[in-house]
Fold this sequence. Notes:
Blueprint lengths: L9 H7 L25 H7 L16 H8 L3 E8 L2 E12 L4 E2 L6 E2 L4 H14 L22 H5 L4 H5 L22 H6 L23 H15 L3 H13 L12 H4 L23 H4 L2 E2 L1 H16 L8 H8 L11 E5 L2 E10 L2 E7 L6 E6 L5 H14 L17 H7 L1 E6 L2 E8 L2 E6 L5 E6 L5 E3 L5 E6 L5 E6 L8 E2 L8 H6 L3 H11 L3 H12 L3 H14 L4 H13 L3 H15 L10 H14 L4
Antiparallel strand pairs: 1-2, 1-9, 2-3, 4-5, 6-7, 7-8, 8-9, 10-11, 11-12, 12-13, 13-14, 14-15, 15-16, 16-17
Amino acid sequence: MRISPAFYLALLLALLAIPACTSMQETTGERELGASATARIPEAEAVLEGLEPSVTVVGEPGWSLEERMAHYNVRAVSIAVIEDYEIVWAEAFGLANAEENIPATTETLFQAGSISKPVAAAAVLAAAQEGKLDLDAPINSILTSWTLPENEFTAESDVTPRHLLSHTAGATVHGFAGYAIDADVPTTVQVLQGRPPANSPPVLVDFVPGSRHRYSGGGSTVMQLAMSDLVGLPYPELMVKQVLGPIGMTNSTYEQPLPQGKLLQAAVGYKTNGSPVWGKRHTYPEMAAAGLWTTATDLARFLIDMQRALRGDEGTLLRQETVEEMITPVLGSSGLGFFQVDWGGGPYFSHGGADEGFQAFFVASPEGGRGLVMMANSDNFNGLALEIRHAVTRAFDWPGVPTEPILASEVTAEELDALAGRYLVWEDRLIEMTRQGDRLMSRGLLSDDYTWWIPTAEGTFITQNNGAEFQFERDEAGAVTGYFRVDEQERRVRPRLPGDFESYVSLLDAERTDDAIARLRADGIDEVALNQLGYMLLDDRPEQAIAIFQLVVELHPGSANASDSLGEAYLSIGDTVAAVESFRLVAEKLKADSSIPEEQKPSYETRARTMLGRHGRG
């Protein structure tokens, strides 16, 4: 099992810094647009042929969406653009189901992941507007079917809906892994209690509510149950009545799992390597946190309703002052459902989301009625989403957002060759710089991550993937010894490594797996770091990942987590016999394994039982 959290908001954080697509023809007239699609406008054409990295260079063309979908192995993308409080462009590309060759349309349902939270927050705020709920009341005064455990932290300050919506409640459990098609699905109360068949630990409070910010899907699930208790309706029905229906989000639902009729509209989720999620998609009983099925156009309708409320229009779901409260940060960048991001043109409100096999992102302006929604059925959408965002902001001329292309200075081949070599970025992260024609490129060892280094007139280089500026350091003889980031307050030099330097990273990168394992064994790297290394290798280098996990089992024979991870690695190459044996050992080791907290053991037990049952040895 991955020790680091599997659920994330990488797409949102990125802001702060497939085979050919069957539905991507040259003109709108050559493809059948869904009912909610719009005609292809000139700005859209510019986006589709003008995807670009964070930094653009004068004279360099962009990429087409088709090229970048193939590059990132993303099966389907759905896009909706808002201009002047209207959807001016909505279109879907690629395959909702690659195995059955089913194209995506604007009515294809995608899992929204954490974007479920701001839509769910709107229901809470609507209830508060109507006087049915006090945002500052103790949550336990609203809950009737379960009680949030009280302790020394809640004794100092009650947990309130305001805390839960702003991620300041001190609630545990960052996010949720979901449940495969053959897994038992827990009730909401079982999820909150961390009781089987839940695969996540119990939701507790472990710091004083209101004292700091920490993202918590567990807190959103507490709010989900409180709303159902308050209104007296199942959560999906409540959300249709409170938000989805009034706004006109007719292709959206919180039903988990999806009913049979809606499965025909639903995309299949795909992993980073392009393989489908087991059973096509996961079920998320944590509906407010991760359970929304929707379309890019429905999410755009939601954003427009929020924007119109901010403008002071009548007939919106929420009043102006309510939405202003939603987008205003409480602590950090988190408001009551939305995150605030600042670009050159001013603040925007935003959220990202990721479920197994799906990623999504939206951003909207509080003034002027601009916005962008992107959804994909892939775990590898982050980079592509960022490139689409750059292209949209430039094509639609969003104020202050697009950066001007930079003019690359001329550097001789000899000068670039002098910079080539390997550099130590962190203890276990190395990059290799090489000259490619008249350009300098860096590649991260053990990854496909690469970026071009653009030379400037000041003698520095700007990395094209994120716009960071670096300068090379030289010794008295003029030889390059390392490089550093120009804007760092304390200079941290990334040293250039000697040509004969070897580490487990460089050994693995060179496919010298046995030598790398020997080095790792000698270096005494701890279990957590080895486990993370194994998962980093699993998608692209499964055989090496298996070797790493085997080493973890060897070094930590009593670890249930080590056997769990090895079982997952065996499954990735189709060795179900070895996988079954590993998951059987998980069950044997679990009781005596003191490294796993007691509250997390049920999730390991559930996973092992599911895997054994799935592969015929239950």
